[in-house]
Design a protein that fits this description.
This protein has about 70 residues and is mainly alpha-helical. It has 3 helices and no strands. The protein has helices at about 1-5, 15-20, 25-40. The relative contact order is 0.16.
Length: about 70
């Protein structure tokens, strides 16, 4: 599992070939291994360990928008 987890981002996405520096054949094998591990519940489909936090609330305009001519 430690080998497979090297090829997955923090969000749980499979990293690209450029990032991994793998050949096409190696990337295909890694992708198949990751997908099989997810199906067998060895790896989660999503990584929700660090939930997204807003630092300040989003502000929305309260008035009507007008078109500029």
């Amino acid at each position: 599992m430690s080998l497979i987890s090297r090829f997955i981002s923090e969000q749980g996405k499979i990293l690209s070939r450029r990032v991994n520096r793998l050949t096409l054949k190696q990337q295909r094998l890694i992708t198949i291994a990751i997908k099989q591990a997810r199906i067998l519940s060895s790896l989660p489909f999503l990584n929700n360990e660090k939930p997204f936090k807003r630092t300040e609330p989003a502000t929305r305009p309260t008035g009507l928008r007008t078109r500029k001519k």
